[in-house]
Amino acid sequence: QKSYMLTYQLLKDTELEKQFESESAYWTEVLRRVVSVVKFLAERGRALRGSIVMFLAGLIMVITWAFWS
What we know:
The protein is 86% helix and 0% strand. By secondary structure, it is mainly alpha-helical. It is rod-shaped. Keywords: Membrane, Transmembrane, Transmembrane helix.
């Protein structure tokens, strides 16, 4: 019984560790994309607010970045 509980706990910990790594990788990629859009807008001297044109430019940048990565 004790051995089973220890094995179960180790498996549970391993599963949580895998889930943590997966979530961490996902949010790292999200952050990279956000930084990429901000950098894209800043390089062109664009405000981070305003027209739909700039929103679409940022969106195109995100799509391009996602496609190439």
